[in-house]
Write a structure and sequence with these properties.
It catalyses: a 2'-deoxyribonucleoside 5'-diphosphate + ATP = a 2'-deoxyribonucleoside 5'-triphosphate + ADP. By secondary structure, the protein is α+β, with helices and mostly antiparallel strands. The structure holds adenosine-5'-diphosphate (ADP).
Length: about 160
C-alpha cells in the first residue's frame, strides 16, 4: 500500500443483499477512485456481531439487529485509497437513512435507522481492527491499478 493511502472496511447489510443493489454501490466506490483489495461473503454469527457492535449491545434495538444481521449472508469489502476511511464515510452518509443527504449511499437508498445499506469503518484505528476481524492477511491483495497515475497527483501516489 502507498504511504499516504489507507484501507477501510465496508460490508453490505442484509437490506442491500435482499434489494440486489450491490453492483450499484460498488460502482459508486469504483467511480470515486477507491481500489477493491479484498471481497467475500460470510454468515455473521452472534459472536462476530457482539464484537463488531459492542458499543450498541445495551441498546433496546440490539436484539432485533442480531436477527436482522443473520437473516442472509453479508458481503464484505476492503477499499483502499488516499484518506479512504474519510472518503468512504462521506460516501456512506450519516447513520440514519431519513437524515442522510441525497447523494450519499444512505441518503439515496435508505429510509431506515437500522437498514442503512452498508457498514463503513469510522476511524483509521477501527478500520485496522475491523479488517483484521473479518479478513486473514492472505485475503488482502496488494496490486497496482493502471488508473492510479490519473487519479492522483504525484505527491499523493
Ligand atoms: P454507523 O453504522 O453509522 O457507524 P452506529 O455505530 O451508531 O452507526 O450504529 C451501527 C448500526 O446499528 C447502524 O448503522 C444501524 O444499522 C444500527 N442502528 C443504530 N442505531 C439504531 C437504532 N436506533 N435502531 C435500529 N438500529 C440502529
Amino acid at each position: 500500500m502507498k504511504k499516504l493511502h489507507q484501507q477501510t472496511l465496508v460490508f453490505f447489510k442484509p437490506d442491500a443483499i435482499n434489494r440486489g443493489i450491490l453492483g450499484e454501490i460498488i460502482t459508486r466506490f469504483e467511480r470515486k477512485g477507491l481500489k477493491v483489495v479484498a471481497m467475500k461473503m460470510i454468515n455473521l454469527n452472534d459472536e462476530l456481531i457482539n464484537e463488531h457492535y459492542h458499543h450498541l449491545k445495551n441498546k433496546s434495538f440490539f436484539k432485533n439487529n442480531l436477527i436482522f444481521f443473520q437473516s442472509v449472508p453479508i458481503v464484505l469489502l476492503v477499499l483502499e485509497g488516499l484518506e479512504a476511511v474519510k472518503v468512504v464515510r462521506n460516501l456512506a452518509g450519516p447513520t440514519f437513512g431519513v437524515d442522510a443527504p441525497a447523494g450519499t449511499i444512505r441518503g439515496d437508498y435508505s429510509v431506515s435507522t437500522r437498514s442503512n445499506i452498508i457498514h463503513a469503518s469510522d476511524s483509521l484505528e477501527n478500520a485496522k481492527i475491523e479488517i483484521a476481524r473479518f479478513f486473514n492477511k492472505n485475503e488482502l491483495f496488494d496490486y497496482q491499478k493502471i488508473d492510479e497515475e490519473i487519479l492522483y497527483a504525484e505527491d499523493e501516489r
